[in-house]
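Extended Data, panel c. Modelled sequence:
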Amino acid sequence: MSNRNDYPNNTNQRALIASAAARLIAESGISDYAMAKRKAAYSLGLPGNAQLPENAEVEAELRIYQRLFQDEEQTARIDHLLQKSCEIMSIVQRFNPYLTGSVLDGTAGRYAEIDIQLFTDSAKDVEIFLLNQRIDFEHSQPRSERAEAVLTLHGEDAVTNLIVYPPHEERVTFKTRDGRIRQRARLDAVNKMLIARRAGNP
């Protein structure tokens, strides 16, 4: 007996949902892939039990959409967010920062936020440092149980989340919800990436 995952219409549904979810992420500023997939399925009039695509499928469609419809805008936006990331990572260098998320992997959309992981003994030390630097921040809800705190900086042209972890978590390989390794990069690697992009070698 065939598994329902083998039905052609099920494969088509996954592709339709992935494409619609990618468009939502690119155009509407949704960063949560699970939410984007649910909204996409609903907008397509599919049943609540429709099989949803993997995040990797949505990401592949997102890259295609951005390349076709937002190429110049996307390039400028990523370059800008990488520059802002470098500036902020330089400021918080004492807390061992790593860039991660959509800015690093190149899928950041129009409303994407910068995600920077910090590894330090106390989130309070980061808060005190930011206060001393006269950098305004607010507390946001951590997306991971491992994180001690998320301190969000609202700049005029970018929002940055400083995700604070205890030092031993630096040795842990972080993964996405669908099991893929979550990339991260130190300041020197981000600087090199920005230089290469500006030289036309992304």
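The helical segments are 8-28, 33-43, 55-69, 71-91, 102-105, 123-132, 187-198. This feature is highlighted in the accompanying rendering.
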